[in-house]
Amino acid sequence: MAEPTWLSLAPALVTIGLAFATRQVVPSLFAGVLTGSVVLYVQSGDLADLNPISRLFLPALGSKSYAQILLIYLWALGGMIGLWARTGAARHFAEWVGSQLSGTRRSALLFAWILGCVFHQGGTVSTVLTGSTVKPVADANRVSHEELAYVVDSTASPVATILPFNAWPAFVAGLLVGTIPLVGDLESGETLFYASLKYNFYAIFAVSSTLLFSLGLLPRVSPIMRRARERAIETGLLDHPDARPMLVEDDSPEGHALPGYAPHLSDFLVPLFLLLSISVVPITLGYPSRIPEAFSIAVLSAMVMARIHGMRLDDILAGFISGCSRMTIGAIVLGLAITVGTVAKELHTAAYLVSVMGDGLQPVWLPALLMLLCMGIAFATGTSWGTYAVVFPIALPLAWAVHPDPGFVQVCFGAVLGGAVFGDQCSPISDTTILSSMFTGCDLMDHVRTQLPMALGSAGLAAAASTLAAALV
Asked: d(Cα 77, Cα 193) in Å, to the nearest integer?
């Protein structure tokens, strides 16, 4: 194969450039794949390389990585969320927990933080259920909508990356297979994910600072957020006078049980217990993770519990299928993401980057640089998973080439993971940002303006911690 040239960067540059310009991930990723096909032809002269279907898409989409993610993300996770919507299980659990708490500002915000951690399967689920459930309690205790939206948003995707008993490890592992010697298969990719959790500094700082904020113990609160808090306490105004809240009526069907079905705590707790125990126990005993098995058993248990409590089989299957259909766009992004990763491997993009700047790049600065890059891309596109698809296949080979040490790779891995979550959390076009505003009754831009300084504080600490960790490994 010919030596990689600057053309090796073309697919990544096209993808990133279009993502910034259009804020649309799917067409940007697709354009990156097509560009990769053209570059392969230029390098090889083989007309077969101009056929992206057989040359790139089929090998990527026919891989074990993609099949496993479809099983976990599209069917198991989507199906379980659809069943919880049909049975009203998650909302029933959240309302039960809320009834056990005392009525104070602190308890309302703490309630939001706890629910954000419990609903760790994905950002959208967390924001909808947490926001809509906690809002009445928070409103009654003069919690400003800016404060509530911040807590809800900051415990959605960040929690999902540090309590990764969900689809995230398998998704990221699918992007990494074959990129570096440490990741030869999906299992080793997931192992790297778990080993890097301690270096996911942004998520750790974001979730921790939000807990302190909820308890009123955070040493420094941004002036704009402090004014929102004082306004609500002193005047009872939960929104800025000029705000245009994205209100959702209390009778929204999201998460409510079918008419005639009485939700039970076991509808939620049994699948959640099985999911966590089957995911966690093997890891603690030193065995490979069992994420696919955990999700499969959890969704089957959700079906069984619904049937035991009287739901008709037709309704159970309808809930499952409805949940799966919600994940279709995610499956498309996933397929394109894995294909873009294949393009980067074929073109040896990381090898070219190393040849250009590897000798002049100090390893200690790489994690912070990767984090900043991911923050920018995710903020512009509103998606963390799309950012991972663009950055991970290049970032890890670059990290390995600059400093081939497993500990250093873990630090860089954590920086990419956290940086993308920051951008997704703070972007005004992110689904979690929009839904956090909508289901807490907050003005979207008020939420963005008040959350951003708080999140930037966590990001600054994370960048410093990543640099320090890189210097010590």
From this structure: 19
